Amino acid sequence: MQRADKAAIEQLHIGETRLMELAGRECLRIVGETLQLESFSGSSFLVVCGKGNNGGDGFVLARHLLNMQASVDLVLLYPESLLKGVNREGLTILEAYQKHETSLRIFKSHDEALPFVAETSYNALIDAITGTGLRLDEPGLALVSPLSDGIELINTIRDRTNALTIAIDLPSGLDATTGFSATPVIRADVTVTMAFLKRGFYLNEGPECCGEVHVAEISIPRFLVEPSSCLLTDSEFAAEHFLLRESASAKHTNGKVLIIAGSQTGQSSMVGAAILSAKAALKTGAGYVCISLPISLAAVIHIAVPEAIVIGRDIATIAEHARWADAILIGCGLGRDETAIELVRELLSNSIVTSKKLILDADALYALSVIGTAESLSQCHDVVLTPHYGEFSRLTARPIEEIAADPIGCAESFAALHQVTVLLKGSPTVITRAEGPTLLNTSGTEALATAGSGDVLSGMIVALAAKGASPVNAAAAAAWFHGRAGDLASNVASLVSAGMIVDSIHQAIEEIFEQEE
Asked: Could you read off the pLDDT of 58-80 as tens digits, one per residue?
């Protein structure tokens, strides 16, 4: 963003004053919409400003609030002598306003403001203290005065009065890249960010600190930040990569899926995972689904998924159907005994299997960690791995805490090392490959935290891949639909089961195309 700001000023000749004016004006619009005010008259705001451009944005917003007949208490945390350029100009304008406006009070320090503002009620508290410049390699850095004083002032008044807290650009004390937070940090209800979303909003403490995020359009064009390192998936992205059936098409032209899943021993059965993934593939529009599992389970599958073909576990038969398939899913409920591990080894050394789009999930990922990831994946052409943090820890030998702290970096390095696509499940879900931008998916809630949910997601991915989407786009679009299906499954997230997610896939897909119509 710093480079984009500089480029807008130097290359496009958009003056710094113009950028700041647009930022302040956009903040005013979003503040009004958020508070649902018919008029700003009679409303009261506390604006706490730092010494940089974030504080400058706060000065502009304060002026616009005054123009709309609001009352403003402005707290300047740093000495005026530290203000430079447009920031100094912004304060000078407000000082001139003060000669004519009794509804403006300017406090030149935290200590000066404290006796007056601590017991005052406000419609909203505006955090204009720090912008994107804070860098945190780990959470919990202790901030010093006056920065900490300003943050604690806002948080204290918010806790006492429940006043809405609005952060300009990002909550002060939050790292815009890592999502790590310092101590203290602003807990915003709304964040009005400039020009583009920041990935730290979605990582670590970011979601908790940011609240509802709005993007302010301040005339910084997208081409100044291309190519983006991260993109956020949405309904339009999901719809774009869900290929509809052609009017003259047949079942074999609408995605032929082979699912190698499920197991049964003398002590346990995991046929349910195969059923869930197969049902999900069919619900996501696959034209033809074949399931390979112990043939003794065929009757169960025929009852649960009558649309599916069932084959056994003979390698020659699997290879024959692999040649036929457009995409193959391996792993859901496959088991972790020596037989299952050896099956994965054979499959990933078979050139027919590895020439196809592959999705490796669950027990296939466990087998990879046993037989060797690098060697096993070296023959694969288009493969998607779908681990959660625990499975990814086993694959990479990294602690779960390290992965959780930097899921994007960890996923990107693994994808680049092994030339694969990684869908790292979490909040957000990270989808990345060796080349191209990383995709972040934020659809869904805790509704997805239920046994079998991952099997459903894998079935959706293999269906979209079989229908023609690239592996990375199939994974990302399926993740979005999967999250939305979880939302639609029940009004109470804690009641959602994997079967309910499957039953809601149609609704999640249909509502997108109904909206387009």
From this structure: 999 999 999 999 999 999 999 99
**Tokens standing for residue 39:** 């008029």
Tens digits of per-residue pLDDT, 397-434? 999 999 999 999 999 999 999 999 999 999 999 999 98
- What is the spatial distance between Cα 363 and Cα 345, in angstroms, rounded to a whole number? 12
Find the farthest-apart pair of alpha carbons in the chain and give their distance in angstroms, rounded.
88
Q: Tokens at residue 267, please?
A: 């002590």
C-alpha distance across the termini of the chain, in Å? 36
Chain position carrying tokens 């899913």: 329
Closest among 358, 511, 506 to 423, alpha carbons compared = 358
**Structure tokens given for 41:** 């008259």
Question: In the chain, which segments carry CATH 3.40.1190.20?
Answer: 235-516
Q: In this structure, what DSSP letter does residue 243 have?
A: P
CATH fold for the domain made of 235-516 = UDP-N-acetylmuramoyl-L-alanine:D-glutamate ligase (3.40.1190)
pTM strictly above 0.85? yes
For 476-504, the three-class secondary structure string (H helix, E strand, C coil) is HHHHHHHHHHHHHHCCCHHHCCHHHHHHH
Q: Average model confidence (pLDDT) for the chain?
A: 95
CATH number of the structural domain 2-226: 3.40.50.10260
